[in-house]
Amino acid sequence: MRDAVTTLIKNYDIAGKYFDRNAIDSLKSYFESGTDRIQAASVINANAAAIVKQSGSQLFDELPELIRPGGNAYTTRRYAACLRDMDYYLRYATYALVAGNMNILDERVLDGLRETYNSLGVPIGSTVRGIQIMKDIAKEKIATAGISNTAFVDEPFDYITREISEKNV
Ligand SMILES: CCC1=C(C)/C(=C/C2=NC(=C\c3[nH]c(/C=C4\NC(=O)[C@H](C)[C@H]4CC)c(C)c3CCC(=O)O)/C(CCC(=O)O)=C2C)NC1=O
């Protein structure tokens, strides 16, 4: 698992170089956004159950076939598995937000996920939609908590959706 600082140090150490202007700028921007990152994570933590629940409701309103017979989230067990997956994405998104680096998502969330989803018939497009809904709901709550620039919150959610959609289904 890596974060913005350890990744930078690793790269400069491999090159045997002192930090240059670019390195200093990227360290500065990481530390300057640090308070907002922590605050955003803390807003998500405090509202996690509500964010997952609302995202699920909105997803199933938009795509009701998911919870009808034959749908992948049909039956209580699969419905619960779907919301549990949403909760995983939300929790790991907060780790990646604080780390300022997406590496944890590769290591703990995305590795082997597409294969699992494909073998269980979990629809990737609908999962992507669910994650995007969750991003919007999380950003709303973060904005309401007084963080004016919430653009950085997109990164982990967009990273997860890009990675699970990318390679051939
Ligand atoms: C922390 C990293 C991590 C992830 C990400 C994870 C995902 C994950 N989701 C699974 C299943 C599942 N995932 C879903 C999800 C959905 N179905 C839908 O129609 C919706 C679109 C979507 C919710 C948005 C469902 C329904 C299952 C159960 C499928 C089945 O057993 O038939 C499974 C198979 C094993 C199980 O049921 O627990 C895994 C491993 N597990 C992990 O440890």
CATH fold descriptor of the largest domain = Globin-like
List the ions, cofactors and other small molecules found in this model.
phycocyanobilin
General shape: globular
Query: Main beta sheet: strand number and arrangement?
Result: none
How big a fraction of the residues is strand?
under 5%
Q: CATH superfamily of the largest domain, please?
A: Phycocyanins
Q: Any idea of the CATH class of the largest domain?
A: Mainly Alpha
Helix content: over 70%
Question: Helix count, per DSSP?
Answer: 8
Which regions contain 5 or more consecutive residues with pLDDT less than 50?
none
Q: Between the first and last Cα atoms, what is the distance in angstroms? A: 27 Å
User: How are helices and strands ordered from N to C?
Assistant: HHHHHHHH
Identify the CATH architecture of the largest domain.
Orthogonal Bundle
Average the pLDDT over all residues and give the rounded result.
Answer: 96
Number of strands: 0
**Rg from alpha-carbon coordinates:** 18 Å
Structural class computed from helices and strand pairing: mainly alpha
Q: What is the number of domains?
A: 2
